[in-house]
């Protein structure tokens, strides 16, 4: 969209309007308890109508955003078209893993490897793995009995194990696909199917020190805090019996590992290795093998294969209870995220139609403070403000990525490393780190952790809230180091 110099000069006023809209989203969600979907949609209309009003008052003959309705619906529809099925499939996989005991099987595998010698490390690793497909809230509830029985068996503080588990879950929940939040953020900043595997790779790299920071907090600070949780009355073995016969380790891990392997194979197959005599790009794999690997490694196809694996290897009975009610529960969970993602797409389309991006470009032309690493810090701060104010990690991921996308070319965040969109990936990681800080009373996860761990409010703030702050700061430090190297 080509904007006149006169319209671009309105940038500072419209930027101020955008910040007012962000404040509105926070206030409407946190104070009025308005659903994030409605908050974002309302803010989108405020920004669009306000931008046109500013243009009118400044003497513009034509509206800056010519067709507000079309802009909003196209932004809403395009983001859902690109990411909707991926979110649905990822959520269904997580729901099946949760309900069939596959998550418990994953925990059992880790415990067998580590035994009782390192219970806190075991809980961190178990949380880190389980939250790849399962929402952190559900993962914590599922594994709560394991945490209690392990505390009784080893004599380690239940608060230590609680925080180790919660921070392990939190690390991958905010940073690593196929969790829906990071997938939505990646799509919002323009990362296509070929780049999703690299989001997973970088997400894993960043999430390891983040989980480690949470683990250290659990061992050094949370271990000194009290809990009113009653001692476990059942062993882990007794708890497992509630799920009946658990699936095999291969069946439990398959719906997660196989899609990731397929994504990796497609990315490797599409690696450029040079050009031919006519200047056409040569890829590592060609012919039918390239076509097959690319098809299987397209995110929507890879995750659908994961869904099929979950259905045919994990569900003991493929009846109405499992194929209708269980799938329906997954669709309900996915629908909320899809709607918020669509609303974020609508907001992003309106931002893109305003002169904000052009104004930011002119503002940073001779100032590198907010370019590259500085821009990553900006994304972190916006996400942290949204997360702390309104409580939802997923909403913070989606809203911040929506705001950042139109500004990224001006902020030096579209850098490529070969075929890897490293600038966009690091932006997702910075937003993810900000979306961790902090979990407190307006976050459902805070209450899940505190209530299932016997922590009073004061203890939960010291244990859980401060741990998420430490994780967020650790995450942005790691991201900034990577940014200094690659941007």
Automatic annotation (TrEMBL):
Source domain of life: Bacteria
Pfam families linked to this entry: GntP_permease (PF02447)
Keyword annotations of the record: Membrane, Transmembrane, Transmembrane helix
A single Gene Ontology CC term: plasma membrane
Keyword Membrane: yes
Signal peptide: none
Record GO terms (molecular function): gluconate transmembrane transporter activity
Bilayer-spanning residue ranges: 7-28, 34-55, 76-97, 120-143, 196-218, 249-273, 293-315, 327-349, 369-386, 393-413, 425-448, 469-486
Cited InterPro entries: Glcn_transporter
Name under which the protein is recorded: GntP family permease
Organism: Paenibacillus paeoniae
């Amino acid at each position: 969209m080509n904007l006149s110099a006169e319209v671009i000069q309105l940038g500072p006023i419209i930027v101020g309007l955008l910040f007012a809209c962000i404040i509105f989203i926070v206030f409407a969600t946190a104070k009025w308890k308005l659903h994030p979907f409605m908050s974002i949609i309302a803010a989108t209309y405020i920004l669009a109508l306000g931008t046109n009003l500013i243009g009118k008052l400044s003497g513009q003959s034509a509206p800056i955003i010519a067709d507000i309705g079309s802009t909003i619906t196209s932004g809403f529809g395009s983001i859902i078209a690109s990411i909707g099925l991926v979110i649905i499939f990822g959520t269904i996989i997580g729901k099946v893993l949760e309900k069939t005991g596959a998550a418990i099987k994953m925990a059992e595998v880790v415990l067998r490897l580590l035994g009782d010698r390192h219970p806190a490390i075991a809980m961190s690793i178990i949380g880190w793995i389980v939250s790849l497909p399962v929402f952190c809230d559900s993962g914590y509830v599922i594994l709560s009995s394991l945490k209690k029985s392990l505390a009784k068996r080893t004599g380690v503080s239940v608060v230590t194990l609680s925080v180790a588990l919660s921070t392990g879950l939190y690390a991958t929940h905010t940073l690593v696909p196929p969790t829906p939040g990071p997938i939505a953020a990646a799509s919002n900043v323009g990362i296509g199917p070929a780049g999703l595997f690299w989001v997973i790779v970088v997400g894993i790299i960043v999430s390891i020190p983040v989980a480690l920071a949470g683990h250290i907090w659990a061992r050094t600070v949370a271990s000194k805090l009290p809990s009113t949780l009653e001692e476990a009355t059942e062993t882990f073995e007794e708890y497992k019996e509630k799920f009946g016969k658990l699936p095999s380790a291969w069946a439990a891990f398959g719906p997660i590992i196989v899609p990731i392997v397929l994504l990796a194979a497609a990315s490797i197959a599409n690696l450029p290795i040079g050009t031919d005599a006519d200047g056409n790009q040569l890829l590592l794999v060609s012919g039918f093998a390239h076509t097959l690997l690319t098809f299987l490694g397209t995110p929507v196809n890879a995750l659908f294969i994961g869904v099929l694996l979950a259905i045919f290897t994990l569900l003991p009975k493929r009846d109405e209870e499992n194929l209708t009610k269980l799938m329906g529960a997954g669709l309900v969970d996915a629908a909320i995220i899809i709607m918020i993602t669509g609303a974020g797409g609508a907001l992003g389309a309106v931002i893109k139609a305003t002169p904000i991006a052009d104004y930011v470009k002119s503002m940073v032309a001779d100032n590198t403070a907010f370019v590259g690493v500085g821009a990553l810090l900006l994304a972190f701060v916006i996400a942290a403000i949204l997360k702390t104010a309104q409580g939802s990690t997923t909403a913070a991921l989606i809203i911040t990525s929506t705001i950042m996308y139109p500004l990224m070319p001006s902020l030096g965040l579209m850098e490529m490393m070969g075929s890897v969109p490293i600038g966009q990936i690091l932006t997702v990681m910075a937003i993810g780190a900000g979306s961790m800080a902090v979990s407190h009373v307006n976050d459902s996860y805070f209450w899940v952790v505190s209530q299932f761990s016997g922590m009073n409010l004061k203890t939960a703030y010291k244990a859980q809230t401060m741990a998420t702050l430490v994780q967020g700061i650790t995450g942005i430090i790691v991201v900034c180091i990577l940014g200094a190297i690659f941007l």
